[in-house]
Amino acid sequence: MSEEREMLRDTVAAIVAKHATSEAVRRAMESERGYDESLWTLLCEQVGAAALIVPEELGGAGGELADAAVVFEVLGSALVPTPLLGTTLAELALLAADEPDVDALEALAAGTSLGAVVFDPAYVVNGDIADIVLANEDGRLDRWTSFTAHPAVTMDPTRRLARVEVGDAVTIGSDPGLADVAAILLAAEQIGAAARCLDLTVAYTKERVQFGRPIGSFQALKHRMADLYVLVQTARALVDDAVEEPSPTSAALARVAASEAFTAVAGEAIQMHGGVGITWEYDIQFYFKRAHGSAQLLGPPRDFLRRLEAEVL
Length: 313
Hints:
With 313 residues, the protein is an alpha+beta fold. The chain has two domains: 3-176, Acyl-CoA dehydrogenase/oxidase, N-terminal domain (Butyryl-Coa Dehydrogenase, subunit A, domain 1), CATH 1.10.540.10; 179-312, Butyryl-CoA Dehydrogenase, subunit A, domain 3, CATH 1.20.140.10. 57% of the residues lie in helices and 13% in strands. It has helices at 3-19, 22-29, 37-47, 65-77, 84-95, 102-110, 178-207, 219-244, 248-273, 284-296, 301-312, and strands at residues 115-118, 124-125, 132-137, 140-151, 161-174, 209-210, 213-214. The strands form two sheets. The chain has a five-stranded mixed beta sheet, with helices on one face. Strand 6 and strand 7 (213-214) form a beta hairpin. The chain starts with a helix and ends with a helix. The mean pLDDT is 94.
């Protein structure tokens, strides 16, 4: 990782540590819009989180996919509810348009407008709060100039979804592979969450005493946590490769590995926490719900496995 990206990671991590505590995340997810608007403003103004992949001449920071992935990983570690995923994808869609909407891009980059991209109209990230909605329709990009949104039922309270219905739409260009970029960014977020979930579990097993000693000292749990660490680091390597060299294949590999790692860690975390793990007072239950919710977002892992199978066989 370059020095600039390390600084970006550290800056976002410091903001998250100060403004996205467990209590703050709970307040954000229960708020009217489902995220902390003051934190979103802070991320946009101090870090340029929404401007990273937008060229400088269009009001952005002129960064790369790897810069955005760093931010997604850090935000994912604390399950911070933000409109960043939908907004970033909307920016990429507008940048791929035959005639990019400069005003819309500048507003998205500043964080004053929010975006969403529709892959499945029944489950749209940012669907209920988006100002700008685009859709991937059979290889073309459509901009929905009018639409209606309704809250969707989801098991993950830290990420709201909406059912969005199109009113009027215009075709603005060809799809640049948004689903693959979405898979890579989501995988980066999953890795951040998986690593943090494992850290929380290790810390808990050091504190929880049973039979006169911390449960983390038992060899069986040590082995399980070591296996989980290897699983997370292996998935991280695949995500890093996808970020550096994005392609349909690398995106599918990253998505499958990150989903499997996160769901495995979250499941074991619940087991190691015991009965309290699924109670509202403990944050581990949020990681479990995010793991299973994000694994199905943008299509379940089996869809990506089928793609890989078709390419190999």
